[in-house]
Amino acid sequence: MEPISTSTGASTLGAWYLPNCCEGDDVSPPDTSENNNGGGVFNSGTASAGPSFDVNHTTGGKYSAMLKIDTSVTSWTQLFRWLEPQNYPDLYYSVWLYFPQVYTPSQYWAIVEWKSSHPAGNAPFWMLNVSNHNGSSGPMSFYLWNAQTNTTYNQSLTTIPVGQWTNVQAHYVCAGDNTGHVTIWQDGTQIFDLTGVQTRYSDGTCAWDTESNSNGLTPNPATIYVDDAKICSGGLCS
Amino acid sequence: MNFRDKIRITGAGQSAKTLLVACAMAAMAVAGYQVSKKHAPLRAGIKKCSALMAPRTVYAQGVTTLWSADMEPIPVPPGSTSASTLGAWYLPSCCEGDDVNPADPNANNNGGGVFNSGTASASPSFDYNHTTGGKYSALLKIDTSVESGTRLFRWLEPGMNNSNSDLYYSVWYYFPTIETPTLFWNILQWKSASSSTHKNDAMFSLDVNNRGSEMYLYLCPPAFINGGSCFGQIGNTYYIPLATWTHVEAHYVCAGDSTGHVTIWEDGNQLFDVGNVQTRYADGGCSWSVNNYSNGLTPSPATIYVDDAKICQGGRCPL
Q: Is the Cβ–Cβ distance between B254 and B155 less than 8 Å?
């Protein structure tokens, strides 16, 4: 999330739009054919994504992306990439996340998702969500949700540290039949590994985003930070 | 006494009754005339009557809003399905995102843009909002452990008429906390870039200081005016209200000779009125920005919010 050079200047969140840059902070729906963008920033409800120097993960850098939502209405802010997921079905994803405090979702809080678009619509497939252990004030942890089958996969191997960076990595094989694959690591610990699953519509595309998306969080508004996102092929991102 | 003389008198502070009569007479006179350029003084008189008698919204009928940014998502480019909260600053083209210096007036057909230096950020925020029915303002945040600035620029309208623009500017600020500048804290400025020397400098800037823990505005000219000494407010100091929106308006006549003019109002109170001054380089352009720019603030980082910026022609911007 450091300023990257564009043709005329630099943009802190500009990498999400490459190869073209930028419409700024956009409102849904994302249009994958628009302006030759490879992704973008999309908000709904009461939400914002912006560069921030509150906390930073990049060595020698200054900035991260601050994702802030007000869940008095269902709200999300999403940093999307569709260029690489559309062109390469077998990819590795890495992103650093910073949770400044414990938040309690009333129903759901999505942080990472893969979506698929086909002629009948655009819907999430797999989502990495946050819930609390041991009641509403307990530590936060990730769970995986299959949005198509409404199946939840829990884990108790890791919790989400508060006030420090945590690394989420994923291996996602995008497949329109049951040959897909979803593996998630948190700080090097494999916390989910689902094989033989469908990961996009059979006639659909594949897109990935890191986001803050919820219909109810306490306290509210809720802020998280995102930094050093990568998409890699051939193995886990270094 | 003819109608024109009557109107002149009303401008000198006559009673409300006289004012009403004069304005009614002038209105009747206009109704009986085929209004044309030769009756411009009469029309100006009518406008003055309107200014004195009518609510601001009525007066604003003679004003053209050339550009505005309410920090709500706008379609960019126009007609697009996508939208940008800070995109209006870049129109007619949009957007490079949050850019780093130097500002390039020729880039991508932009009419302005967002520019950061040091450790600074500008982003949409729903922490506070001024726009009726809206959600967002622009959050301008700087860390002054190094000299830092974030600037929302427009150069399209100030550069009108070969940079001899005569325009009115309006912007709402929200100061959530009291800040103490060690040297300067610039929140609004006009700049000029000289084509011969390639110097790109602030001309007049609106800065913040504080006295007894209350913040107030002062106006600073370029070094070649008043020896660079800043201007204090006219009359009693108007202090910046804390944690509520405050409205800053300006009339800026951009001139490369001493025919320029700078007037500043805050919440309707005229704070500065500097006439017959040079307000740009003789061979330079004219641009305007809303800033959070300082080399030292306590506490730091420092955040302010900005909303509902406008540039207007023909009079102060409508509320």
A: no
